[in-house]
Every structure is written in structure tokens, then in C-alpha cells.
Amino acid sequence: MFNFLKKNKKTSFHAVADGNLIPINKVEDNVFSEKMLGDGYGVQPTSNDVYSPVAGTIVSVFPTKHAVTMTTDNGLEILVHMGIDTVELNGAPFEVFVKEGQKVTPETKLATMDLAELEKTNTTSTIVIAITNMDLVKDMPTVTEGPVKANQEVIAIDVTK
């Protein structure tokens, strides 16, 4: 009835590491590139530190330390997946610094990812940021491919809630 009072809220998404920003359809894994888990983007990191892409709350840290999920205040569910096929490494190249229920911002370091160790195992280090509940996204902008610094805003998303 009072829909005119509702305003779309923008959520800022940031680079999670220094590196190269790529659209999700260029991620080297079909589950992500075909958007089976949702839309988003990837960062091919050049540094070991991984930061939160958004302000929100940590929902879960996978036991293998390769992924973290979080929610934003306006309900977006975000998956931060560190590397491709890294679940098989049983947490070896990762150290996680956050826990479930913790509030985070783009300045919060989520984890470190040992890029040299990933290279030794011939494992792709691309970090994928996927929005897993796209029904809340009014319009998904395309990221501009190129170099980024950790915490740099890469897109702002209109949320319909």
C-alpha cells in the first residue's frame, strides 16, 4: 500500500584483494562462470590477504577454510570462495580470522591465502564473490575488468527489499 515510501538500498561491493578484477563469467570454473550459485565477480589475487567484499555479518566459515558466507543488513547473501577446487586442500593454504556472528566491513581481513602454496599445487587462486539470493537484486551491474586494490569499490547494487 505504501510502496512509494520504500526506497531501493544500494550495497557497495569491494575488491577482496589486490589483483585483477574479472567478471564472473570469466572465472575458470563452470559452477561460477555459468552463475549456478549466483552472480558476482572474481579477483585474481596478487597478495595473500583476503578482505570482506561488503559490510555485513559472517554466517559461516567452511571447515576447510576455503569459503566464508555472510549477509548484508539488507538481506543479500554473499559467498566468498577462495581459489578454485581448494576444498580438496583441506584448509592447508588458508588462515581465517573471522567467526560466525562477527560484524565485518570491507576493511576486515577475512583470511590469508598462501598464493605460493597454491602455485605449488597448481591450484587456481581466483577469489569468487557470488550473491546467492539474486531475487533481491534489482539490477546487476557488470564489473570493469582490470587491476584493483583491496577495499576498492567495484560495484554498487540496488537491492529490492
Automatic annotation (TrEMBL):
GO terms for molecular function: kinase activity. GO terms for biological process: phosphoenolpyruvate-dependent sugar phosphotransferase system. It is a multi-pass membrane protein. Pfam families: PTS_EIIA_1. Residues 29-133 form the PTS EIIA type-1 domain. One of its GO terms (cellular component) is cytoplasm. Gene3D superfamilies: Glucose Permease (Domain IIA). Its main location: membrane. It is found in: Cell membrane; Cytoplasm. It comes from the Bacteria. Keywords: Kinase, Phosphotransferase system, Sugar transport, Transferase, Transport. This is PTS glucose transporter subunit IIA.
